[in-house]
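Chapter summary example.
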Amino acid sequence: MMLILGSILGLTAIAFGAYIEHGLQASLSAEQLHAVSTALRYQQLHAVIICVLALAKESHWRVAKYVSLQIANVFFILGTLLFSGSIYLATWLPQMQWSKLAPFGGSLLMLAWLTLSWTGYTLHKDRRKT
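The structure predicted for these 130 residues follows.
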């Protein structure tokens, strides 16, 4: 399921990017264009990470056994949806206060990276025991 979600995030990042570049760019302010570009960049990066972590979880790699890997992936998905999604919605529906959700998404992304680093630390610690 995580691989599917990561792939869909990658696909929609490309679709949103093309739509913005070829359909909306002229109607967006410089500030909106910058915000959407940041959202797209974050979405693309985290879509790749989500897919890699999903593949790692299904592999025979030693890291696959760590629950924290799965937790990090959930945080990456939720963080990406909240961060990038709220910026897209704030651009298309500016009268609503969608952009207030972006900091929560950013916090979840930071928590995801922290959880992933914990997985790395635990893996390193376990390797030293053997």
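To summarize the output: The mean pLDDT is 92.
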